[in-house]
Amino acid sequence: MIKKVLLIISSIVGVILLIGFMIPEFKEMPCCTPSDYNHESFHYWPWTRGAKGHPHTGVDIFGKKGTRVNSPNGGIVIYSGYLNKTAGNTVFVLGPKWRVHMYMHLDSLTCEKGEWLGAGWQIGTLGNSGNAKTTPPHVHYGIFTPFPYVWNFFIPVGKGNQPIKYNWRKMFWLNPAKHLP
User: Staple partner for 79: which of 92, 93, 112, 171, CB 3.0–4.6 Å?
Assistant: First the structure.
């Protein structure tokens, strides 16, 4: 009896995981235009580093404060609020392929935790909250995957100058420039 229940549960989980990987992704900008960010800023060393000297886990898309920031893909909001003094106003959206799309330094938030978003729906406005107070308004856009992309460990990023001790992060933080136009 227990084996049968475990088989049913594992089958359901397997089908849910498979469906998540089959949902298509769109190549849309969360805001502004493709010329409003440095396509090489992800994990680039030493030009840009994230908090505490760690590699930059996303791209910064600059624009006018208050510009609408949209979710490029549909998904469910798993966090919306002030995260910490580094990230500021932040939204995490679980989207296609089980990837978490992260939007940091927003000025205002227009979505709530648990809310379902369609592609192109507004999540907030461009700002410089958190540790971005001294920078022009922008959104730090990153993509995290809970399923490691092991092959990314060996891919040089940032002209190959990234210290190897940080390579493991590239297995979980995907380069957003590859998912934007």
Answer: 92
